[in-house]
Specification:
The protein is an alpha+beta fold and 384 residues long. It contains twelve helices and eleven strands.
Amino acid sequence: MITKKILLASGVLGLVGVWSLSQAAGQGSIAPAAPGPAMGTSMSEKAVDTLPPLPGLDPAIKAKADALFADAEAVGETRALYVLRDGAPIYERYGEGFGPETKMISWSMAKSITAVLTGIMVSDGQLSLDAPAPVAAWQRSGDPRGAITLADLLHMSSGLEHVENGDPIWEGDTVAMLFGGGAPDMAGFAEAKPAAAQPGEVFNYSSATSVILADILADTLTPSKSPEARREAMREFISGRLAEPLGMTSLTPEFDAAGTMIGGSIMHATARDYARFGEFLRNHGVVNGQRLLPESWMDFMLKPSAKDAGYGGHIWLNRTRPRGVTPSLWPDRGPNDLFACIGHQGQYIIVSPSQRVTIVRLGVTDDDQFPELRRHLADLTAAL
């Protein structure tokens, strides 16, 4: 007899594949339908645009880039690869059925976008990086969670009892939050977890942490508890302060039923728009000569956190991680200033400032393929 638990597990695995902390896995959930293809779905052949011709590329570089498509058995399916040098495209290729107008899912790359939005509010004076996070559920006298700061949340060191990856998978907090009992109010689920350590004491990668940040952003923008009001406030803020200035016209965040942005897992955009975000980071918060994000915030995001040097402020760094922890990038090969937004199943926005390069790779990679995917991406960045 097939039990309900087995059916649930089968459904979850079908949706999210295999979860892995070392891959910075983050997932997403239900929200109003976005225009255009979502969740990385294919476009019809008719909808795939003809790509413009690009300047001649060194054959050695082209071979490393093409290998991400040719070696699918080793690295998984690459659906988009877009490479820019000095802000200009030098390589652009898509898998069959995908093209420059295809919106593809961010998974945990969304965390870095949430960090930038947080930085904008801090620079506006609406939030404080080092003050206790304004979460109502933590404000009772004697609650140790009341000492958690925005910096703790951004460094994944809140001390909250969050379990990113369950064993079995459906027992993890992330699956419960996104697909189980916590889905109607993800922030409420995440904020209700007790303290398991002091703030700043332990690195604990958690998609629930990013949802808490998204909840703080929405609460700062509007006092209303109406889901629609919260969604609209966030959409307007993202559009006016980030998407429009960067030209990220395809960027589509998703929300839970309570109107909280799923800030750790689910946004959609084209490869070109993800690259615009990478270029914004490469230029330290400046776009078209206009500074949108303070230099000090970029310094914070890119400074190694105290408990894991491979992680900054909601972004992965090309630094050596603690002993026994799988590297997220390639610190033994690439420059120290290289950093990346990384998502489940091999979504990458890789930025190498010293090389003046931004790389976007989108696709579907299984956990056992990640070492080869990292090697291929390291080979490509080295060739550049």
